[in-house]
Each structure stands twice: as C-alpha cells, then as structure tokens.
Amino acid sequence: MNSPFGGASSSSSANAIGAQANKDRKMQSAEQLVLDLSNPDLRENALLELSKNKELFQDLAPFVWTSFGTIAALIQEIVSIYPVLSPPNLTPAQSNRVCNALALLQCVASHQDTRMSFLNAHIPLYLYPFLNTTSKSRPFEYLRLTSLGVIGALVKVDDTEVISFLLSTEIIPLCLRTMEMGSELSKTVATFIVQKILLDDVGLDYICTTAERFFAVGRVLGTMVATLAEQPSSRLLKHIIRCYLRLSDNPRACDALRSCLPDMLRDATFGSCLREDPTTRRWLQQLLHNVQGPRVALQAGGGFDHMLVN
Hints:
By secondary structure, the chain is an all-alpha fold. The chain folds into two domains: 28-157, Leucine-rich Repeat Variant (Alpha Horseshoe), CATH 1.25.10.10; 202-297 and 304-310, Leucine-rich Repeat Variant (Alpha Horseshoe). The chain has helices at 7-36, 43-53, 60-66, 70-79, 92-110, 115-120, 128-131, 138-155, 160-168, 171-181, 184-199, 201-208, 211-230, 234-247, 251-260, 271-275, 278-292. 37% of the residues are buried.
C-alpha cells in the first residue's frame, strides 16, 4: 500500500539511485580493469573480463583510448604473436588472448568519439598480418574472424574517409583471400566489408578503374557462388548478390557482367534460399535487369571487353 506521503515516488527514486550506483560500480570496475592492462601480470585477466563485458560498460572506448599506455599494451599483445604466424604455430590460448585484445580495439573502432583517432593512428595495419594467413585451423580462423570484426566495425558507418584509408592500405586483396579460403562466417564478414566499400562511390570507382581489379573481385564472387550451390548460405548469398548489384551500377562493369555473371544466378539454383528473403530476391531481379537489359554504351577509353571471361 502506498504511503500518503509519496511512498511510490520514493520507491522509484530509490530504484533510480540504486541503478545509478550499480552503473557507477560497473564503470569503476571497468576503469580498474583498463588500468590493469598496463601491468603484464594482470593483463590476461583484464583482457578476458573486459572483452566478455564490454557492452556493459558505457564509454569504455574513450577510456581505453585516452588512458595512459592502454593502446600500447593492446598493440604489444598483437605484435607478440607475429612470430608464430609463419610457420603456423599459433596455439588456442594465444589466439584467445589476442582476440580479447582485438575485441577491445573493435570497441574503439565502433565508437563515434574514437573511430577517426583509431584510423588516423593506422592501427588497422597491425591486424593485416592476421588476414594474410592461410591456415584453416581454429586458432587462425578465430583470429581472422575477430580481425575482420574490427574492420567491419569501421565500415558500418558510411564514411568515405574510412573507405579511402582501407583502399589505400590494400584491404581488398586481404578480404578476397578470406572470401576464398575462410569459414562461412569469416567469408560473410569479409564479403560484407567488400560490399560496404563498393557502396561508397570511391570504392566502386577504385574497383572498376582497371580490369584487373574488377576481375579479381568478380572471380572470387563467382567461386563463392559455385560453392554456395553445394553448401547454401542465405546470409552469404545476400552479400554476394548485393556486391554484384553494386558493380552493375558502373557502366563498364555492367557490360563485363553480361559475360561473367554466374549462370547459377540467372537460373533457379538458389530459388529455395531466395524464397524467404524478399530483399535479396529483389536485388537479384534488379541485377538481372541491369545486366540483361539494353547494352550500355562504353565510355571513352574503352571497357573490359578485351578481357572478358567467356
């Protein structure tokens, strides 16, 4: 029964105060764990706890970025396993530990207040050796996937400056490598990154500027389509079709797709996958309309005709 003197209101106030106190305790705990990262003896536990609970801590990314020595400690964790990348001797424990460090970097890459500082410091370059590996063992696959997660966090926000940086540092060949040999999940994230790059005009122009770049991307997309015919994945197919659709926005690329678009996208091979995904089905219909419609006149300077793959 509520008191005539405002018991209900007092209860609400007490709950709000309790929630704020709990939030403050969590943030104090997070701040202490971040400080522990600078201590080699405490770092492993701090990495584990922070990576498991990073969503619970508000403004963790700015604190990680601005606290003394923290980013240096995370980079130290990353470079410490370079020697075991080739020949491949990465253990599960080493992979887990560096992936916990990468999870914190993903947090920094995702936050609006730290994203550009993260990029301007060229920190993504420290992850590229992980994307250049070819071992299919679980420790390496986990490492590639987590590294792709950091890059994926950067491209989720449409920003031409981010795209330009990634293109200038040759991210496309690294994504293509994963799209060829990674697990379904890592292929999906890598294809998503290529899709986001293509959706930016700078990215589309970059890939369609030369026939070599266009066909490098087209070859890998085609290989994945053939693989999906045997091992279907609606999620991966969605990103592949979106990449093709965006390529068809470029006149020369669209002309080239008339010869190199996989037949399996033109027939009913993926009918079952598309039946329950109206968005992807609509994208495919638009792609086929673009490619099979009236032939697009080539711009001055020629197109890809001399290199078309029949």
